[in-house]
Amino acid sequence: MSVANLCHRLQSQVSARTAAGFAEVLRRLGAPLQVAVAGRIKSGKSTLVNALIGRRVAPTDIGECTRLVTRFQYGTVDRVEIVFTDGRKQVLPFASDGMIPAELGVDIEKVSHIEAYLTNAVLQGMTVIDTPGLGSLDAASVSRTEQLLGAAKHRKDDEEEGSDELDDTSRNAVAGAEAVLYVVTQGVRADDQQALAAFTAATASREAGPVNAIAVLNKADTIAPESVEGSGGDVWKAATLLAEKQASTLKPRVADVLPVIGLIAESAESGGFTSADAEALRQLAALDDDVLQTMLISADIFTSWECDVPAGTRLRLLEKLDLFGVSHAVEAIRKEPEITAGALRRSLLDASGLEAVRQRLAVVFAARADGIKAAAALASVTALAHASGDPAERQRVHDAIEVLLAKPEAHQLRLLEALTLVASGAVDMPEDLVEEVLRVGSNADIGAQLGKPGAPRAELAAHALERAGWWRSFASFGATPAQSRVAHVVHRAYFLMWQQVREA
After folding, report:
1. What are the pLDDT digits (tens) for 413-462?
2. Cβ atoms within 10 Å, residue 416
3. Local structure of 201: helix, strand or coil
4. DSSP label of 310
């Protein structure tokens, strides 16, 4: 990779401390993409983490562990490590239920974060970082989260010159996650934009944007459909419409907002839904419809109503599926009485919206992981050079990056850079052109990039060539110098799309 080559080449031309930082950047380039799951307290972040991983390991109840950052990554042996602020590590067994213990048995004021290693295929391509919820963090939790995610302010370093140890400033410059999955619930608050920015989604305090951030509207089943115009009384339709509205609020900081029901997703995907649960749902499906509809009015009525299904069993179903999931499962059973427990689980998983989130993660993150990591690495390299305090070193690194970005193979990096400039407002452009740049830069699928998903190849090729010509003319005759720089990048993006479609 060109960025890795740049780091290798520069290591011998910079101070020992900066070179140590470059070594960490190189390590990160070779590691899976790091995705931070962020959001407010009680937004269901840990439940969603469990669903994404496909295993119930992140504690969802408030406890010591939920005040700490936890990194879930691939390992050949399942284990938990407590990482202390002084660098010490302590191995911790999983609790009897397979989860990270809610209470750690150590002084958490001395804990930096938790590392959880799992033999899980999902984590081979993506490290998931579960963060404390915004809104009720104590100062220590805020500090720990900022340190690990790279949101801490750069501080002057008083360590001896020549030390090859990473100072706090340098460590923070390379510590951040490269992407963010931001969890919201029904009401996007006015300061969610700032809250999202606080969880800096890339190294060196680069802010989240459509390149590296998506949001999910969790607990979609709790939305009252009558409160959303155009829903037609359908809960999922209401959630979809509300997610679209939230997307317009949070853009351009996120590529999209997708509805999801994290609780159902976690139960269906992590083994929480059992054949015994399916049998209990069959018993509920056999009840008189009027009785069942009354029971489904509220959680209290559902668990206290006199019927053949034991109250304890109903409480268990409620904890795993909530009323919406119970209702969906009963409807599926009544529609297909012979449905197996496995098919019922898959039906619940489909109803949770998790697959759409995974697909969007694949498009926004996984398919472009190398580009996202490379862009984050360049930001880290720049920050490390800046932190060195040596003007000559800073200029040397800057010149090397400019040479790199001028190369044809660095086009994806230039496109990500252009997208970030436009999304942040650093380059002012007409609204219709902003939307086009965001579309071209925020998708990996050519049809989506061209705004013509599913169109025939010939139509895609013609449109790509037409837009390439338009952006080239704009760059030469109608743009400011800053706009022209972006326009040249977009022109090349369209030209490369035209080539790719023609050769397909």
Report:
1. 788 778 877 876 778 888 889 889 888 887 778 898 999 998 999 999 99
2. 23
3. coil
4. -
pTM of the model: 0.75
How far apart CA 160 and CA 170 sit, in angstroms, is 14
CB-count burial class (<10 Å; 0-12, 13-18, 19+) for 63: middle
246 to each of 17, 89, 207, 481, how far by Cα in Å?
43, 41, 19, 34
The HSE-up count of residue 285 (CA atoms within 13 Å, CB side) is: 22
Torsion angles phi and psi, residue 254, rounded to 5:
-130, 155
Other beta carbons within 10 Å of 73: 18
Q: CA of 252: how far to CAs of 193, 197, 257, 449, 491, in Å? A: 10, 11, 11, 16, 21
Whole-angstrom Cα distance, residue 312 to residue 404? 63
DSSP 127-145: EEEE-PPBTS--HHHHHHH
Q: What Å distances lie between residue 68 and 46, 63, 107, CA to CA?
A: 12, 10, 12
Cα 4 to Cα 34, 82, 182, 401, 406: the distances in Å are: 18, 30, 29, 12, 16
Tokens 């599913």 belong to which residue? 454
Which helix (H) or strand (E) is 484 found in, with range?
A: helix 481-503
Q: Which of the residue ranges 123-127, 197-201, 409-413 would you say has the lowest mean pLDDT?
A: 197-201
> Token match 């069993």: residue?
313
| Tokens found for residue 160 | 């001896």
**Which one-letter DSSP state was computed for residue 63?**
S
The residue type found at 453 is: P
Pull the structure tokens for residue 437.
């740049």
Model confidence pLDDT, tens digit, residues 291-310: 999 999 999 999 999 988 99
The Cβ-side half-sphere exposure at 234, using a 13 Å CA radius, reads: 8
Task: Give yes or no for a contact between 263 and 322, defined as CB atoms under 8 angstroms apart.
Answer: yes
Backbone angles phi, psi at 116, to 5 degrees: -115, 120
Q: Residue 120 is encoded by which pair of tokens?
A: 């899980």
pLDDT in tens, 140-161: 555 555 555 544 333 333 333 3
Distance CA 199, CA 224 (A): 30
Name, in order, each residue with C-beta under 8 angstroms of 267's C-beta and a sequence gap of 6 or more: 273, 320, 321, 325, 348
Burial class (CB in 10 A: 0-12, 13-18, 19+), 17: buried
The amino acid at residue 43 is S
Mean pLDDT of 463-476: 93
Q: How confident is the model at residue 343 (pLDDT cuts 50, 70, 90)?
A: very high
CA angle 120–124–130, rounded 5-degree value: 75
Tracing tokens 């590529």 back to the chain, one arrives at 255
Quote the CA–CA distance of 170 and 381 in Å, as a whole number: 10
